Each structure stands twice: as structure tokens, then as C-alpha cells.
């Protein structure tokens, strides 16, 4: 063996003596997901694990109640009930060294009910009507998108904003002009909560469909017809009155003229009676 080779082995041996743990693999703590998104009040499973072959102490720290379901030397399975955003600590002690992993748990309130309201439900073509959608008790609002639909056509979509962690009601109001085809399709509202960026899933719920009664503006035509009929009847009434007046005058004149001639004839025949 060369002098340089012997010197290299000596240095390696001294390094092991000075750092007895350097030859061991550094222990790590892990969980099945780095960030949890859970529904409020729903029981959640959390698995803490390590790559340490012989861990000494291990456990889970949380402000909520926990229940140990199962365990092995390198992992433990817990069940917890989370009601608000929190941080969970998972720890293992390996060779006198403690490793800790922090896990953020976000609580959400999914859209369980979507309420749609059309006002008015009877509308004339060309007139305005209001579409109102309400989603009670949802959080976080910034993950919620509300879409108003006519059939499968998107009429309006709004991404909600808000930083409040507590659940609140989301309201979206949209004004639209009534068209003839609106009466041939149902209206609906879709609430979609996107939690994929937080390690969750995509949750959506749709309201019950609502129908809009659309009718032609026939009231103006009816008014025209009514005015025309009234005008004709008034004309006939006035005409009949005038005709009656003319006929009565002619009759009166004829009657008056006949009596005058008879009186003059009597005076001529019997002048001594005058």
C-alpha cells in the first residue's frame, strides 16, 4: 500500500472517531401530505413517520383531541377532529436527537346549499330582471367562484374575495335583459370551491333550476285595440245622436208646416168666424 493510501485510511478513521454519528443516515420526519385541508368538524387521519430504524420517543402535538389508532416503531396513525385552522407538530427522537415536522391544517366550509332567485319570474321581452345567488356558510371565500347559467351557457361568473376565516354567506347579483329564448331554458347557479392549491380537491354544488316566464309586450297592442274600439263606439254614438236630432227637427217642421196651411185654409173659408 502506498504512503498516500495509508494516510487516507488514517484520516477517515480519525473522522469517524471525532464524529460518531456521521456514518449514520440523518433521520427525517414525514407525513402523507405536507399541508392538510379538512372540512370543519370532520375527523381527519394523520400519519407521522420517520426513517430512523430505532426511534426512542415519538408523538403528535395538537390543540385538539387526538386518538392513537395504530403504531409501529417507525410510524404512528392518529385521528383528530379539527374545527379551525391550526398547526400540528409531529416529532421523533433518534439517537438522542429530536426531529420535528410542522404541518399546517386549513379548515374549510364547503358549499352545502346554493339558492337561486329570479325576480320577477314573469317578465316582458326587453325588460330587466335580476338573478340572485346565495351560498350560506362558506369559507374561505377567496377559494369560491359563483357562476350563473342559462341552460349550459355561462351568463356571469364571479370569483369571491375575502380574508375572514369564519364562515359567511356569499351573494352574487346580476341584472340581465329578458330575451325570447330565456323562456326556453332553465336558470341555475353553480358554486365551486377550489382547494387544489392547498392540497385539497375541487368541490362544486349546483342550485335547483328556475324557469323564467317571458312574454311579448302585448299590453300596448291591447291598448291600441281598446282605444280604437272606444273611438268607433263614440263615433257611432255621436252620429246616432245627430241623426236623431236631424230626423226630429225634420219631423217637427213637417208637422208645423201642415198645421199652418190648415189654419190659413180655415180663415179663408170662414172669414166671419175670425
From TrEMBL:
InterPro entries: ICAM_N, ICAM_VCAM, ICAM_VCAM_N, Ig-like_dom_sf, Ig-like_fold. Pfam families: ICAM_N. One of its GO terms (biological process) is cell-cell adhesion. It comes from Catagonus wagneri. The chain crosses the membrane at residues 223-247. This is Intercellular adhesion molecule 2. Residues 25-113 form the Intercellular adhesion molecule N-terminal domain. One of its GO terms (molecular function) is integrin binding. It is a single-pass type I membrane protein. Keywords: Cell adhesion, Disulfide bond, Glycoprotein, Immunoglobulin domain, Membrane, Repeat, Signal, Transmembrane, Transmembrane helix. It is found in: Membrane. GO terms for cellular component: cleavage furrow; microvillus; uropod. Belongs to the immunoglobulin superfamily. ICAM family. Residues 1-23 form the signal peptide.
Amino acid at each position: 500500500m502506498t504512503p498516500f493510501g495509508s494516510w487516507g485510511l488514517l484520516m477517515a478513521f480519525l473522522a469517524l472517531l471525532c464524529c460518531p454519528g456521521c456514518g449514520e443516515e440523518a433521520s427525517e420526519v414525514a407525513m402523507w401530505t405536507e399541508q392538510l385541508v379538512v372540512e370543519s368538524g370532520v375527523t381527519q387521519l394523520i400519519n407521522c413517520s420517520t426513517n430512523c430504524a430505532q426511534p426512542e420517543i415519538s408523538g403528535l402535538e395538537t390543540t385538539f383531541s387526538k386518538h392513537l389508532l395504530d403504531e409501529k416503531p417507525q410510524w404512528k396513525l392518529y385521528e383528530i377532529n379539527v374545527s379551525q385552522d391550526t398547526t400540528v407538530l409531529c416529532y421523533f427522537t433518534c439517537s438522542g436527537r429530536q426531529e420535528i415536522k410542522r404541518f399546517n391544517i386549513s379548515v374549510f366550509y364547503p358549499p352545502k346549499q346554493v339558492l337561486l332567485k329570479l325576480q320577477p319570474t314573469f317578465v316582458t321581452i326587453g325588460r330587466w330582471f335580476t338573478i340572485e345567488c346565495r351560498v350560506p356558510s362558506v369559507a374561505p371565500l377567496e377559494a369560491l367562484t359563483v357562476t350563473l347559467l342559462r341552460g349550459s351557457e355561462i351568463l356571469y361568473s364571479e370569483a369571491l374575495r375575502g380574508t375572514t376565516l369564519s364562515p359567511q354567506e356569499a351573494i352574487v347579483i346580476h341584472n340581465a335583459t329578458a330575451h325570447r329564448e330565456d323562456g326556453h331554458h332553465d336558470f341555475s347557479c353553480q358554486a365551486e370551491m377550489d382547494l387544489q392549491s392547498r392540497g385539497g380537491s375541487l368541490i362544486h354544488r349546483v342550485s335547483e333550476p328556475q324557469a323564467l316566464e317571458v312574454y311579448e309586450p302585448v299590453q300596448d297592442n291591447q291598448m291600441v285595440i281598446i282605444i280604437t274600439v272606444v273611438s268607433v263606439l263614440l263615433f257611432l254614438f255621436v252620429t246616432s245622436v245627430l241623426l236623431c236630432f236631424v230626423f226630429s227637427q225634420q219631423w217637427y217642421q213637417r208637422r208645423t208646416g201642415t198645421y199652418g196651411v190648415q189654419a190659413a185654409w180655415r180663415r179663408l173659408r170662414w172669414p166671419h168666424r175670425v
